[in-house]
Each structure stands twice: as structure tokens, then as C-alpha cells.
Amino acid sequence: MHSLLAVVVSHGGSTHLYQLLSALVAMNGCGVVLVENDTLAGRPVPAGVRVVEGQGNVGYGTAVNLAVNLAVEDGPAPDWLLVINSDVTIPADTAEVLPKLLGWYPPSVDVVGFPFLASEGGPGRSRGVLPTPRTSAFITLRGEAAAVARWPQLRYPVGAFFAIRVPTFLRLGGFDPAYWMYYEETDLFARLYAAGGRIAWADDEWPVVHVGGETVGRSGLLHAELGRAAAVYARRHRATLGWSWPAVHAGQLAVLTARKLATGRLQDARRAAGILAGLAAGLTRPTWEPAVRSRWHAAPAATRRRLGHLPPAEPARIAAGQIAVGQAGAAQVGAAKVPSAARAVPAPAPRSGDPEPGPDPSAVDPLTTG
User: Fold this and answer.
1) At a CB cut-off of 8 Å and minimum separation 6, what does 161 contact?
2) What pTM was estimated for this model as a whole?
3) Which candidate, 240, 224, 141, places its Cα nearest to that of 186?
4) Would you say 349 and 340 are in contact if contact means Cβ atoms under 8 Å apart?
5) Strand 111-113 to strand 49-53: parallel, antiparallel, or no bridges (unpaired)?
6) Are the C-beta atoms of 51 and 8 separated by less than 8 Å?
7) pLDDT of the residue at 15
8) Domain 4-217+296-343 carries which CATH code?
9) pLDDT for res 287
10) Domain-wise residue ranges, the chain
11) In what order do the strands lie in the sheet with 88-89?
12) Listed residue (252, 28, 303, 258) closest to 143, CA to CA
């Protein structure tokens, strides 16, 4: 039985895909699933990788749910799920220590986030802060990195790479198929925190490299999809966000558009304006799905719900996995404290504290996460 299930979601692959899959297959106790939302078109895949294709472009979260469903149907569920973008690479040192690193975390830790490096070697954007009227207004004035530092209890890993316990993932119902692309991890971690879950952070010595943008490019339709996803998030979490967050977020995008125009960054201004237009359309037309009739051929929401639905986890499997959601209160969210026995192992261990991060040079746009 594999203790770790790595799921890579791809749409036509990336230049790093084969390298990524090879690193995952070589990991101790790691089963690897590639969910291809387009077609591999004869591109090679390393031996040992299970390929899932033919389901259409179901998006990111639904693709991960599909892979988890297959793993659960095949036998005992693995301990951890590793969610990975196809434009990520894993340095050899991180790949070697990762399975053991996850094994050191106590059952009270549900999710582990990892630091990102950008392809040019500098720090990448690996953490977001859950959107609220306060955090979004603060980001408009001070930027996302400052908000991440101010609200550590609302921090969560960016969806390009993170690990979550499979029993926790099943208990939460996995990703919500309502999201085709964007905000699916924001929604997942909002539900995790609401259930009393706990997120820990691996030490900066164990980064992954995220190219970023290679999987989507600069499509104007995807900018609108980001706004649409924000509207879905606003409806899904209205009980906690209230009615004000969409207005705050719209103001945030309007300010960003004006700033980019004032500095001559026309491409960035068009991006922000496209997101704003998508937010407005998504709020007024809940069934609007522009990507379905686009070159992306997105699967409609009804198809995603059918393919991405995770059945309720069996109580016996939850017990066997020592589900942690609800065991740790929201006040305990932060980096895990590693037992002294784990520290005695002659290999690097997670840090016992989680200092506030400094400014993130990659956070150039003061947008909320998604």
C-alpha cells in the first residue's frame, strides 16, 4: 500500500511534466496519478504512472477528486494526498525527504504547505490569506504579503503544491466541483478552518520550484473565469463573508486597474479589468460558464459534479486514517511541533515554530487569492 498519493493535473502537459513525474515515481511509498484534461498526444509518461484521461476538461479540483476516487476504490486509502500542478519541479533534496517529512507530523496536522521558488531562483508565492472584507481591503492598501504576515491564522497553501491527509480530504468532501479553475483551494481551506483543521508549514530548506503561468498563459477568458470563481466563492461562503465582500473585492480590482493604467502596465490593467468583469457577470448570472463554449472546452458544472463527487467516507476508513479535522481548534493553527523522537532522526525535520514571513517579492498584484 502506498502511504502517499501524488496527483498531477495537466492540460496538454508542460515542459517540466516528465521530469516531475519521474521524481514522484522515484519517491518512497508514492503512487502517482496523472489526470490529463486534454490529451497526451503520444507524449511519453514514466513507467509506474497511472494516467486518467478522456473525461474532458473538468478543471483542477474535479480532476483531483477523480484520482482520489480511483485510489479509494482500488483499496485502502493512502495516508497523504499530494496535489501538484504540472508546471512544478521538485528538487532532489525535497523529493528525498518529503515522504519521511510527512510521516513526522502528528495526527493533529491536516495539511502541510511548502515554500516555492520561482524559476529564476527567487522566492515564489506559496501562501495566500483567506478573503474577508478586512483582508481584501488591507491587501488593496498594503499588498498580499503584508496581509499574510498580519493574519497567520488565515494563511493557506497555494494550490500548485500541498499535502493533505486523505481522511481529511474525504471528510471535507474534497474539492468543490462548482469551481472549474481558481478558488478551489481557497474554498477547500476555508472549509478546513471552519472544521477546526490545522495547517503546518515545511521548513524553507524543502522548497519546490513553480514556473507559474505555463499552464494557462495570458488568456483573457481565464481572467474572466477568475472573477467568476470569486463570485462562486462569495455565494458559497456568504454566511461567513456577508454581503460586503464582493463589493470590497470589486473595489480592490477597480483600484488595481487604475494603478496599472497609471504606471503604463496595460497588460496587467487588462487582466484586472477582465477579472472585475468576470466577477460582475458571475454575481448577476450564477449559471454563466464562459469557458464551456471556448477553446478550453471546459466541462459544464453538471458534468463536474457527476464526475467529481466524493461519496461520504466510510467510518472505518476515517478511523483507520485517524482523521484530524475537528481535533485541533482554530487557535492552534500554525506550524506543527515535531515530537522529540522525530527530532532525533538523523535527517532534517520540520521546524517547531513558524516565524512571520517577510515581504514576498513575487506578490506584485495586490489581489486576493485564487
Assistant:
1) 82, 83, 84, 85, 88, 114, 116, 126, 208, 210
2) 0.84
3) 240
4) no
5) unpaired
6) no
7) 83
8) 3.90.550.10
9) 95
10) 4-217+296-343
11) 88-89, 208-210, 116-118
12) 252
